[in-house]
Amino acid sequence: MSHNSFGHLFRITTWGESHGPAIGCVVDGCPPGIPLTEADIQVYLDKRKPGQSRYTTQRQEPDQVRILSGVFAGEDGAQVTTGTPISLEIANMDARSKDYGEIKDKFRPGHADYTYFIKYGVRDWRGSGRASARETANRVAAGAIARKVVPDMRVRGALVQVGPHEIDRVNWRWDEVERNPFFCPDPEAVKVWAKFLDEVRKRGSSTGAIIEVVADGVPAGLGAPVYGKLDQDIASGLMSINAVKGVEIGAGFAAASLSGEENADEMRNRPAGWPEFKSNNAGGILGGISTGQPVVARFAVKPTSSILTPQLTVDKDGNDTEVSTKGRHDPCVGIRAVPIGEAMVAIVLADHYLRHRGQTGKG
After folding, report:
1. Measuring CA to CA, how many Å separate 363 from each of 31, 152, 222, 354, 360?
2. How far is CA 11 from the centre of its chain?
3. By CB neighbour count within 10 A (0-12 exposed, 13-18 middle, 19+ buried), where does 192 fall?
4. What are 114-173's pLDDT values in tens digits?
5. Which residues are CB-contacts of 312 (< 8 A; sequence separation ≥ 6)?
6. pLDDT tens digits for range 91-120
7. Of all residues in the chain, what percent carry a pLDDT higher than 90?
């Protein structure tokens, strides 16, 4: 299986399966001299780990990260990156492969079971192997390192829609995101989502969601025209996340209904010599290059394919049958996708920051 790496100058390679002994990743291209400890990474893994509320899978994984290489503590005791590959490991502690025994020969509708089997002729049915969202813990760990590469950058995400229920943007409060189990910026939406997801969970069903990621402090000039666009790579990074079926930048699809006057982000000069934008429909990117405004991306996550409701399917021998998935699964994978989306945006921005510095000498 190829294509397990992402990025160019800041490059990550992930490894491991959902029910194997461990998962992990290698981060290559991180500059030397950046302070880095396991605690710096753990804070983000703790946001993503399962079993933290009744609205996510009850698999109990501590997701404790170990740094195996790429750092060194000098005489002053401060641990910093050395510029060599940083290898990270996260042990799998609570895999229950027996939960999948009854469906190991059946293909779940809407899942990668069928396509993996058709492509490779073999698949790890224990929690879906590499197709499992468990792999994304590696991305969150790598994203913690990426955040340290770009000076003054802050990447934050929030859940803005669960099923048909959207937030009211008038109520948006970033400090509210850390106060509820949904990473929701609207305290009023939390009540609606809680009731809705309780109903979804009791039915043994699932629902989709939309996540918004905002990166502040991104310097102007990142990205390149034509085939190295910043928004192109952000879309690629977000689309690589399990269950993601759509990505938009800035106004996104809503821009299709705007006039040229409405969509244009008008500019005025500032004393510092850099323009002030009157709006940000472009999502901080024009012509594939960052403007210095906040970079804004949203992505849509489909409903979890593993549900209790019996569904028509076929098995690996081509027989018609039904499948119902038991075990522990997220009724809405969009909740834990928030820190994953943050990580992928941070990884892309770190990569483009290093590319920009390499080409122009600016950083």
Report:
1. 12, 11, 10, 8, 8
2. 16
3. middle
4. 998 899 888 877 767 788 888 999 999 999 999 999 999 999 999 999 999 999 999 999
5. 109, 320, 322
6. 987 656 566 667 788 888 888 889 988 998
7. 70
Residue type, 188: E
Per-residue pLDDT, 74: 77
pLDDT score of 112: 86
Is the predicted pLDDT of residue 2 greater than 80, yes or no? no
Half-sphere exposure (Cβ direction) of 342: Cα atoms closer than 13 Å: 23
Question: DSSP alpha helices (H): ranges in the chain?
Answer: 38-48, 113-120, 136-146, 187-202, 230-239, 260-263, 337-360
**What is the pTM (predicted TM-score) of this model?**
0.93
Measured distance CA(42)–CA(66) in Å, rounded: 9
Q: Which residue has the tokens 């000098």?
A: 74
Can you read off the two tokens belonging to residue 68? 């195996």
Q: How many CA atoms lie within 13 A of 53 on its CB side?
A: 19
Q: Is 132 helix (H, G, I), strand (E, B) or coil?
A: coil
